[in-house]
Amino acid sequence: MNLTIEEIEAKYFDIPSKEDVSYLVWRVYTLRKKLICQFTVEDLRIMIGQNQCLKYLIPRAIEILDKDLFVSGDYYPGDLLFVVLKSDIQYWLNNPVERNSVERLVSRIKQKMEIITLTNENKSKLIKATEEFLSLQIL
Predict the structure, then answer these.
(1) Which of 45, 91, 92, 101 satisfies CB 3.0 to 4.6 Å to 54 for a cystine?
(2) Is residue 139 in a domain?
(3) Those residues with Cβ within 8 angstroms of residue 55's Cβ, 6 or more apart along the chain or in another chain
(4) The whole model's pTM is what?
(5) Domain annotation covers residue 20
(6) For the chain, what is the domain count?
(7) Which residue range is the domain that position 19 belongs to?
(8) CA distance linking residue 58 with residue 56, whole number of Å
(9) What are the counts of helices (DSSP H) followed by strands (DSSP E) for the chain?
(10) What is the pLDDT of residues 18-45, one digit of tens each?
């Protein structure tokens, strides 16, 4: 997508000084001005983790996860998947096609974890997030 989040939302903000806000806040403001088509995995991880512009970012993340379920941003293999699974429930209630795509992707997550290197803590986090996601009640 050749638009920025600011352009999509038609909400424009100045980037605050790094000295005045946390790194995360500064980064979110900065990423709002970046073309979505230029987002890295880490950019997606940050913005989805902050529930920003999910309508446009989750489909992009799903495309990436479809190629590599355990793709990583700056933290650990599967960190993008984790934030997708933990993103705002309202998004999933309103977007059943994307929800079904993610359900398909994680349907065999435990088997797939056997072939990658993850700490036990990160394996547990991903399994729990997957179970919680799959148990969401969509009416």
Answers:
(1) 91
(2) no
(3) 91, 95
(4) 0.89
(5) yes
(6) 1
(7) 5-134
(8) 6
(9) 9, 0
(10) 889 999 999 999 999 999 999 999 999 9
